[in-house]
Amino acid sequence: MRPAWSVILFTTLAGAGQGLFLALFAAEVLADPEWRFLVAGAALALALLGAGLAASFFHLGHPERAWRSAAMWRTSWLSREVIVLPAFMAAVFAWGVAHWLGQPALWIGVAGVALAAALFLCTGMIYACLKFLQEWHTPLTPLNYAALGCASGLTAAAALSAWLYPPLTRGYAAAALLAGLLAYVMRLAALARNARLRPKSSLATAIGVKHPRIVQIAQGAMGGSFNTREFFHGRPREVVRAVRWTFLALVFPVPAMLLLSGNFLAAFLVQYAGLLAERWYFFAEARHPQNLYYQAIA
Amino acid sequence: MSKQLALVIDLNVCVGCHACVTSCKEWNAQGAAGPLSDQNPYGADPSGTFFNRVQTFEVGEFPNTETVHFPKSCLHCEDPPCVPVCPTGASYKRAEDGIVLVDYDKCIGCNYCSWACPYGAREIDEQQKVMKKCTLCVDRIYDTALPDADRKPACVMACPTSARIFGDIHDPDSQASRAIREQGGYALMPEWGTQPANHYLPRRRTDLPIHPDELERHDNPLKVDGKLPRPSTQEPSLDDVTSW
Question: Which among A63, A129, A223 has the least Cβ separation from residue B47?
Answer without folding.
Answer: A223
